[in-house]
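Hi,

I'm pasting everything inline rather than attaching a file, because the server keeps stripping attachments. The sequence lines come first, and each chain or strand is labelled.
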Amino acid sequence: EVQLVESGGGLVQPGGSLRLSCAASGLTFSAYWMHWVRQVPGKGLVWVSRIRPDGSGSNYADSVKGRFIISRDNAKNTLFLQMSSLRVEDTAVYYCARDRVAGSGSLDVWGKGTTVTVSS
Amino acid sequence: QSALTQPPSASGSPGQSVTISCTGTSSDVGAYNYVSWFQQHPGKAPKLIIFEVTKRPSGVPDRFSASKSGNTASLTVSGLQAEDEADYYCSSYTANYMVVFGGGTKVTVL
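And the predicted assembly:
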């Protein structure tokens, strides 16, 4: 069964850091672009970042550029999102997702999400 | 990057059809055939129902269809069923190597 499982969410103070992980199973992880998408409960989906299959390139939403870093360990089938200088507005459920079409946003496999709360 | 524009709500009776629009710009929807549609039920992760403008992943009923004209994409749900009541989001690849989502449309089955 193809599965993505996020972890690492929690409560952090403004200005703090957090590292999210996304463990993949049942798929050839190293063959796919991967994305992070976030959602404030009751609000819409917001794209955060994407990374190439080999990890050689990545892109970010303007709202997180310079603060978040996406990375991956293909040997461990794991995707990461290092979040720093966190703001209250970064509070959301963070989903990792697989892209079936070369970074285009055709996200066909999603995890259940991990909740990040930024609050003092 | 501004979000794509979707109507906040749409509704129809069982068996009827409902169409949701998704308006972008010539730098996203109008530039690429990389429009996707997602269905999300409360408390669940999104589910891909359309990719590359018109393609359905395996297992998605053919009641779901989509198209694009210029900077606007559309999703049509035919033969509405109770389980189609959900939030629907469009997304598009963009000219600055990002992905942008629409604000979402809540579909109600009357």
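The two ends of chain B are 35 Å apart (CA to CA).

If the labels don't parse on your end, tell me and I'll reformat.
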